[in-house]
Amino acid sequence: MRRNWILVLVVVVCLVGTTPPASAATIRAPDGDICITVAYVIDHQGHHISMISNGTIQFGTELYVESDCGRFNVSIDGQQPVEVEGGLYINNISASTRTIDIGGDGWQLNYTNLQFWPTMAFNDAINYWVNQPSPEGEYWTLQELRGHDFWVGFATVLVSLIVSLSIVNTLARRFVEREIGKEITEGGLF
Predict the structure, then answer these.
(1) What pLDDT sits at residue 164?
(2) Which residues touch 44 (CB under 8 Å, ≥6 apart)?
């Protein structure tokens, strides 16, 4: 019985692991073939790629839509759709963009509740902490740091020893009390 549950668990994990991500859509084209459409943004330096899916934050404002489904339309925030003949659409979008609709012959993808952060916001957030001066105050020398490490290690060993000995003492006391109880009841004193 247990082996069956393990087998079911392995099968479920394999099936879940092979499903495509929500940001890439597998679509059945009008001719019956299966095609894939992917939407993502890249920061202007090309260092960060954010896949677009509903309710997410993306870093970058250069939108890429790749599809092998033939002709498709892209509409940003309900504006007039742009028809794309090839398989790639590139456009700079504003940080205030909230919806992107992508559709073709017999299929439609709607991405809503989006939030785009310009690349500079991402870089500024990281560089803010890198460029901060060290806080004022006293710093430890290497000798003080090594002394502190020694005492921390010593205290850790001491506490571990005390806890281990108390556990062993408790177990030994219980064992001895049980054995003495067996001897008294088996010995016929009572």
Answers:
(1) 97
(2) 60, 61, 62, 119
